[in-house]
Amino acid sequence: MPFKSQAQRRKFYAMASRGEMSPKTVRKWETETVGPLPERLSKTSMIMDAFADELEKCARIFGASPDTSLISSGAIPEDVRRQAHDEYLGAKSEEDPTSAPAATLGGGAIGALLGGGLGLQHGRPATIRGAAVGGGLGALAGLLLRAADKGEIGRARDAIGDGESDRAMANLIVSAENRRRYEDDLRHRELLSAMAKE
Question: Which of 38, 105, 151, 173 might form a disulfide with 72, Cβ 3.0–4.6 angstroms?
Answer without folding.
Answer: 173
